[in-house]
Automatic annotation (TrEMBL):
UniProt-listed PROSITE patterns: G_PROTEIN_RECEP_F1_2
Keywords attached to this entry: G-protein coupled receptor, Membrane, Receptor, Transducer, Transmembrane, Transmembrane helix
Designated name of the protein: G-protein coupled receptor
Compartments (UniProt record): Membrane
GO CC field: plasma membrane
Occurrences of domain G-protein coupled receptors family 1 profile (ranges): 33-259
InterPro entries: GPCR_Rhodpsn, GPCR_Rhodpsn_7TM
Membrane association type: Multi-pass membrane protein
PANTHER family the record matches: G-PROTEIN COUPLED RECEPTOR, THYROTROPIN-RELEASING HORMONE RECEPTOR
Membrane in keyword set: yes
Pfam families: 7tm_1
Transmembrane segments: 20-40, 52-71, 112-132, 144-163, 196-219, 240-261, 292-308
Length: 349
C-alpha cells in the first residue's frame, strides 16, 4: 500500500518542478506569441471586429502569464524550492498593498480574458445568423464598450477577494497570501464562486456556442450551397475551427482547477489530513498548468489563417534582412583598410 506522505511529497515535487521548468517556458512562449498576434492583427487592414478580439485577448493573456506564470510561480515559488530556500522573489508579499494588488490583478485579468473569448463566440453566432446586420466593419465602437463593461464587472468581482487578503508568516519564515481569521472559510467560498464564474462557466459556454456555430455552418452549407462564395465559406469555417479549438483547450485547462478548488472548499476539520493535503497539492498543480492555454492560443492562428502566416513570413524575412545588413555593417567597420580586388574572368578558349 502506498504511503500517503509519499504521494503528497511526490505531488509537492511535481508542483515545484512545473513552476521552475514549465512556468517560465510558458511565459516566454506565450508572451512571444501574444506580441506576434497583437502586431499582426493590429496592422491587418481594414480593422474589423474580428481583429479586435485577438488583440484584446493577447493583452490580457500576457498579463496573466506575467503575474501568475512568471512572477508568482517561477520567481516566488519555483526558485525557492530548487535553490533550497536561498532564492525567493515574492513581490506580492513586499507589503499588504502589493499583496492585494497582485491578488486583484490576477483574478481580474483572468476574468476579462475568459469573457472576451465568450463575447467573441456570441459575436460569431450573430455574424452567421444575421450576416447583414453584423458585418465585419460594423459595431466596432459597441465592441469596445463591451470590453469596457467586461473590465468593470471583472473589477467589481475581484475587488472583494483582494480586499480580504492579508499577509501571514509561515513556519519557514516566509510569507504568503491567505484569508485570515474566522472568516477564512467564507472568503474561500467566495474565491470558489469567483473561480467557477471566471473559468468554468465561460469556457463551457464557449464550447456550446461554437458547437452551435458549427451547426449553423453545416445547415447553411446544406440548404444554401451556392449562396456564398466558396473561398469565403472556407475562411469562415477556419475561423470557427480556430476558436472552437481555443475554447476546448481553455475548458480542458480550467476544468481540473475548478473541480479541485470546489472539492477543497468542502473540506473541514473532519477531513482526513491525507486527503486534504493531496487535494491542496493538486489545486496548486492545476493552478500552474492552466496557464498552458494562455501560452498556446497565439500559435493557433498560424494553422488556420493564411494572412497570418503570410504576414508572419514577411515579418521574419524583414528581420532576417535587417540582421544580415547589421552584421555586414559591423564587419565593414571592423575592417581598417579594405582592399578592393578586381576579379577578371579568363577564358580558357
Amino acid at each position: 500500500m502506498v504511503d500517503c506522505s509519499d504521494v503528497v511529497n511526490t505531488l509537492f515535487t511535481l508542483v515545484a518542478s512545473v513552476r521552475f521548468f514549465i512556468s517560465p517556458l510558458l511565459f516566454v512562449l506565450g508572451i512571444g506569441a501574444n506580441i506576434m498576434v497583437f502586431y499582426l492583427f493590429l496592422t491587418n487592414k481594414p480593422l474589423t471586429r474580428y481583429n479586435l478580439y485577438p488583440i484584446a485577448l493577447s493583452i490580457f493573456e500576457s498579463i496573466v502569464l506575467l503575474l501568475n506564470a512568471f512572477i508568482d510561480d517561477f520567481l516566488g515559488r519555483g526558485l525557492y524550492y530548487f535553490s533550497n530556500g536561498n532564492v525567493r522573489i515574492k513581490v506580492d508579499t513586499a507589503s499588504l498593498s502589493a499583496c492585494q494588488f497582485f491578488e486583484f490583478a490576477e483574478s481580474w485579468s483572468s476574468f476579462v480574458a475568459a469573457y472576451i473569448m465568450l463575447a467573441f463566440g456570441i459575436d460569431r453566432v450573430l455574424s452567421i445568423g444575421l450576416p447583414h446586420r453584423f458585418q465585419r466593419d460594423r459595431h466596432i465602437c459597441s465592441t469596445m464598450l463591451l470590453y469596457l463593461g467586461i473590465m468593470v464587472v471583472g473589477a467589481a468581482l475581484s475587488a472583494p477577494i483582494a480586499a480580504g487578503s492579508e499577509l501571514k508568516y509561515e513556519n519557514q519564515a516566509t510569507m504568503k497570501v491567505w484569508f485570515p481569521g474566522a472568516a477564512k472559510r467564507i472568503e474561500y467560498y467566495t474565491k470558489v464562486n469567483v473561480t467557477v464564474i471566471t473559468f468554468l462557466i465561460p469556457t463551457f459556454l464557449l464550447v456550446t456556442i461554437n458547437c452551435i456555430i458549427i451547426g449553423q455552418m453545416l445547415i447553411r452549407k446544406t440548404t444554401h450551397p451556392t449562396v456564398n462564395d466558396p473561398s469565403e465559406s472556407r475562411t469562415e469555417m477556419r475561423r470557427v475551427i480556430t476558436y472552437l479549438l481555443i475554447s476546448f483547450v481553455s475548458f480542458a485547462c480550467t476544468l481540473p482547477l475548478t473541480v479541485t478548488i470546489c472539492v477543497r472548499a468542502g473540506h473541514d476539520f473532519t477531513t482526513p489530513r491525507c486527503e486534504f493535503s493531496i487535494v491542496a497539492e493538486l489545486s496548486r498543480l492545476f493552478n500552474s498548468t492552466k496557464d498552458i492555454q494562455y501560452a498556446c492560443h497565439g500559435y493557433t492562428y498560424i494553422f488556420f489563417f493564411k494572412f497570418f502566416r503570410n504576414r508572419l513570413k514577411q515579418m521574419c524575412s524583414r528581420m532576417r534582412e535587417n540582421c544580415c545588413c547589421g552584421v555586414e555593417r559591423v564587419l565593414t567597420k571592423r575592417s581598417p583598410n579594405p582592399k578592393i580586388a578586381q576579379v577578371t574572368h579568363i577564358s580558357t578558349k
